[in-house]
């Protein structure tokens, strides 16, 4: 539960940062959801492929992106979820990163 | 609003279930069911999209405002740094432009002044009487009673041409001509001598320059009575100047019983200090 709360706060601040602060910089408004995407990719790489923190990150991050964008609620969730499923699939089938996987696990 | 809250609670509850690994223990069939429910819950939020977004905007607006301000400042700071090179270049260009504009402005002012003088001359009707050339004074030599003007033989100026002001006042004549410049010998020059008369009378004499802006009307018979303040004008005698150009006013009369002629000092009509533009009579 603590991790969910942390993720909510983290992505909320990140989206606010993205939509309020980074819009003043050229790379900020050109790729308005790139930071969220990078964060989700990192979370997926750092946890075991069988865990669900990556999915939750995609849902929460996507939800906040949808709130602060003109798209319907679910648009970014679907995109980020697709990314997560793809990463998890690749990690599960082809890549093994034992050290990275333990980083998030040790916090439990 | 109550419905929105319930939907949000449902959303977080679903997330918690996912996190706690309940899904791991349930079958694939149920996993798909939960995923479908999740998708439906999320999509159902679209029915209250305005309300949901409004809540978030309400909560976030103060934070966003702060972030906007910080973002603007930081962006401005970096923009200024990156723009310094351009600013320097732009500054240089602008300075050059200012110089150009100042020069243009000065030229326009000169033209305006010239235009004004020409208009005044037109009012007097100088152009009907004579063929004129406008010239600017570029040098004054009071000790030698001479001026330098910016017209030379390239402008059709030649030696001996009369020089007047816009008020038809005699200044002098051209004594030396260069390619683009000329020297004007003032009527008060020691070498200057020409015929003149007192206006509205038959008193004639010769005006002689004495230097230092002093003029004298000489060879006036003793019998003739002259009044101080009377105007002296040129006559066409001698062909040096056209007639009726104002020379000056009688300032002081010098009479002597032993001399056959009387003499009068003339106050020149032109003010050398104020002279900036002149007319050269090229044909009369």
Please, could you describe this protein's structure?
The complex is a heterodimer of chains A (108) and B (284). Chain A has one domain (2-105). Helices cover 74% and strands 0% of the residues of chain A. Chain A has helices at residues 2-21, 26-30, 34-46, 53-67, 75-93, 98-105. In chain A, helix 1 runs parallel beside helix 4, helix 3 (34-46) runs antiparallel to helix 4 and helix 4 (53-67) runs antiparallel to helix 5 (75-93). Chain B is an alpha+beta fold and 284 residues long. Chain B has two domains: 2-64; 131-284, Rod shape-determining protein MreC, domain 1 (Thrombin, subunit H, Beta Barrel). In chain B, helix 1 packs antiparallel against helix 3. The longest helix of chain B is centred in the first third of the chain and has 76 residues, at 49-124. Chain B is rod-shaped, with a radius of gyration of 46 Å. Classes of the chains: A mainly alpha (108), B alpha+beta (284). Chain A binds chain B through residues 1, 3-4, 12, 16-17, 19-25, 50, 52-53, 55-56, 59-60, 63-64, 67-68, 72-74, 77, and chain B through 11-12, 15-16, 18-19, 21, 23-24, 38-39, 42-43, 45-46, 49, 52-53, 56, 60, 63-65, 67-68, 70-72, 74-75, 78.
List keywords for this structure.
heterodimer; A: 108 residues; mainly alpha; 6 helices; 74% helix; globular; B: 284 residues; alpha+beta; Thrombin, subunit H; 2 domains; six-stranded antiparallel barrel; six-stranded antiparallel β-barrel; rod-shaped
